[in-house]
Amino acid sequence: MFLTSNLFKFIGVYALVLFSQLLNATTIHVAKGSASNTIQKAIDIANASDTILVSSGIYFEKNIIIDKPLTIIGQNRPVLDGEKKYEIISIKANHVQIMGFKLQHSGYGTLDDVAAIKVYESEYVTISDNIIDDTFFGIYLQSGKNCIIKNNQIISYGEEEQQIGNGIHCWKCENLQIIGNRITGHRDGIYFEFVTHSVIWRNISKKNIRYGLHFMFSNDDAYISNVFSENGAGVSVMFTHRVKMFNNVFSNNWGDAAYGLLLKEISDSYINGNKFLENTSGIYMEGVNNTPVQKNTFLRNGWAIKIQASCMNVSLNFNNFFGNTFDIGTNGFLVLNSFNYNYWDKYEGYDINRNKIGDIAYRPISMFSMIIEQNPQAMILFRSIMVSLLDKTEKIIPSLTPENLKDDFPLMRAIDL
Amino acid sequence: MRKVVKYVILDILRSKIIIGYTILLFLISFSVFSLEDNTAKGLLSLLNLELFIVPLVSIIFSTIYIYNSSEFIELLVSQPLKRKSIWLSLFSGLSTSLVVSFLIGSGLPILYFEPSPTGIIMILIGCMLSVIFVAIALLASVLTRDKAKGMGMAIFLWLYFAIIFDGLVLFLLFQFADYPLEKPMMALSALNPIDLSRIIILLRLDVSALMGYTGAIFKDFFGTTTGFISALLALGLWIAIPLYFSLRIFRKKDL
Amino acid sequence: MITINNISKHFGKLKALDQLNLQFNSGECIALIGPNGSGKTTLIKSILGMVVPDEGSILFNKISISKNWKYRSQIGYMPQIGRYPDNMTIGQVINMMKDIRKSEKNVLDEELVEKFALHDIMNKRMRTLSGGTRQKVSASLAFLFNADVLILDEPTAGLDPVSSEILKEKIVKEKTKGKLIIITSHVLSELDDLITQIVYMQDGKLKFQKEINLLKKETGEEKLSKAIAKIMLQNQL
């Protein structure tokens, strides 16, 4: 449904663009055996706002440089091959559109970031419906503004962090829309550094070596309805203000330093309606301020949330916790956060006054999770009788766990999310 | 030998304790599964039962049985029977009864509510633990003639394996917190059948948490078929070694 | 039939048997007597293989009994206190013993089972039995397999006079068949008309082994108890 409706939308927009350009723009065909048999030749002879249609076939054009506003459309998915040596397309002009291609075998380098498509300080660039296969970086935006990266499939086969670039790499950008892309096998699926006022929507980023989404110094962004799964270390959001994270799925990020979502130095953000499934840690928070974490679901994680003592005014409310090994982990005694009105499946209290809120507080932190925090190797003793005894004693006489880390109003039933 | 086993089992089955144990297991297992809304949580509660009650009942019941049967054993020894076959008959009789009890009491509910590989492994581990603690009980009761001392030893052994051992491990972990202890810990866990069983099950139930830290190393070992089989073999040794030594002592024991 | 060569047994500091030498032949009926703790039961248990002597050897039909168990099929043993699995009935115990010891060679001898009227109480559980009834069961079992050697530890203790008499008759009957019978007892008068030989033990040592006729002649006493009392007196002097 989503794909087809998008397709129609896309065709509509495309038709409009064509129509408006018919007045003063020409269309150049690129095909094997014709006068303009390479894309670069077509670009060279084209005027601004022209359209270049590329027929199917495989093109070895080394580095294609687009230096004027052009619409370049691949028909029947022509293949652009970088022979493992070249950056395939470099965009150095505004209002460029590229769609319908398959780009493969870009060059790679450890000093310069070679990509399949790289945008250099340009605005209003649209890159859509391409397949990018086996490249170093996929799509690289350097100081781009108002760009749209949409419905691309970006696949690579990296095995080590140092030998592979990012799927969609954005640096010093504004007003981007990253929509509906699928990214696999890169270092970071999507990389944001100094990117503001942008949206990341409906992307699927999985099986990347490091992060599904790597997000730094990027304020006022939103990422919504994405799926991040089986990434080496999950999703990392750091040194950022005012970021909105809605309805994403973070799943199956397993490993010592793997988190569904790693938050570091975040403030004034929102984390709503997300699902955290089977991660070693669902969310890891360090230095998070003024951030509500609400209506999320935490299912079968090792730790649903690890919240360090450096967090302030994080309000965890109306979340569902099911089947997590530990609900909350922390490293200190100071608790300046709220944990009320959540549903905890481990809650064993009662509700005599039938207001659907448990009459006694729930302590989501067990003594053993404190021990683990200090000595991770003690995990070997988990679920042993001794540990259960310690936990039971601790519940009665709290001594090691923070006294005020508790949900005073634990819900008796899970919230419908 | 088969004849003697038959009579030992008949004798045990006639005692009400073993029937009570079966019913207790059944009631707990059944209620655990019906009260919990998801079966994974039920399995976890059942794990505690398995690691706590099964060894306790097995060791206490077997020790009491051996002491209470001392005259019966004397009677058998004065008959034309090999001591080895008498002892092995007692072992087989006790093991069979406790395993059957466990299978009916816990095995059936597990199979009904959670017929997954994890459930099957839980059942297997429960049976192994029953037999292991029969073997340990035999060793404890053959070591001393005094019933009170023997019972004391049995309870202490259970306490040791169920709680004290883990306390010592925790102590060691904190004493040597700066060293990588994962591999020594793995070896250490083989010294306690309850820990070994717990870890085997844990790797199936709390895999997310275990993927971090020590767990990864454990998973790398116990998670593989070779690791799983070696863990089972280690449990097997926990049956064979106490049984072997108890047999050696029993063969020379004055009755 | 049974040769005991220089056996000793310690239980901790206690010397239960001290370099004991004895010879028992078939056709004899031997009374093993001595004060409490003199080592009688230990001796019997050693013969049965229940106690392993520290040194010395026991030969049964000239074959050492150590690491041997088959010879026990030729022994019927009646323990001092016969205790059996509590939950089994008399019938089950008897059947179990038959099941364990059954072989083509021996013909079952159910005379005592019948005379003690055990058939009427076959369904009683062992737990519910009185000491006397248990003794009846033990005696019946000892004689059941027609063994060549009968070892009876305090056989008449706890038996009512009638049963006691039945048992004594049975012992006499078996003796005449040429079996070796070893009895321990401290009620000496009961043994008078059965015994052919006396073995007297004290502190794990053999005091004397004598033919009963010889003993009576030496002491000039007709009553066994008096004869022994006299001997003991002599020994003390």
Structure summarized in a few sentences:
Chain A is mostly beta strands. In chain A, 12% of the residues lie in helices and 37% in strands.
Chart the SSEs and their pairings.
The complex is a heterotrimer of chains A (417), B (255) and C (237).
Chain A: H1 2-22, E1 27-30, H2 39-45, E2 51-54, E3 58-59, E4 64-66, E5 71-74, E6 79-81, E7 89-91, E8 97-99, E9 102-104, E10 115-120, E11 126-128, E12 131-133, E13 137-142, E14 148-150, E15 153-155, E16 168-174, E17 177-179, E18 182-184, E19 190-196, E20 199-201, E21 204-206, E22 213-216, E23 222-224, E24 227-229, E25 234-241, E26 244-246, E27 249-251, E28 259-267, E29 270-272, E30 275-277, E31 281-294, E32 297-299, E33 303-307, E34 312-317, E35 320-322, E36 326-329, E37 343-344, H3 367-374, H4 385-396
Parallel strand pairs in A: 1-2, 2-5, 3-6, 4-7, 5-8, 6-9, 7-10, 8-11, 9-12, 10-13, 11-14, 12-15, 13-16, 14-17, 15-18, 16-19, 17-20, 18-21, 19-22, 20-23, 21-24, 22-25, 23-26, 24-27, 25-28, 26-29, 27-30, 28-31, 29-31, 30-32, 31-33, 31-34, 32-35, 33-36, 35-37
Chain B: H1 2-14, H2 16-35, H3 39-68, H4 70-77, H5 83-113, H6 117-143, H7 147-175, H8 182-189, H9 193-205, H10 207-210, H11 213-222, H12 225-252
Helix pairs in contact in B: 1-5, 2-3, 2-5, 3-5, 3-6, 3-7, 3-9, 5-6, 5-12, 6-7, 6-9, 6-12, 9-12
Chain C: E1 2-11, E2 14-24, E3 29-33, H1 40-47, E4 55-60, E5 63-64, E6 75-78, H2 90-101, H3 111-115, H4 131-144, E7 149-153, H5 161-176, E8 180-184, E9 197-202, E10 205-211, H6 212-219, H7 224-236
Helix pairs in contact in C: 6-7
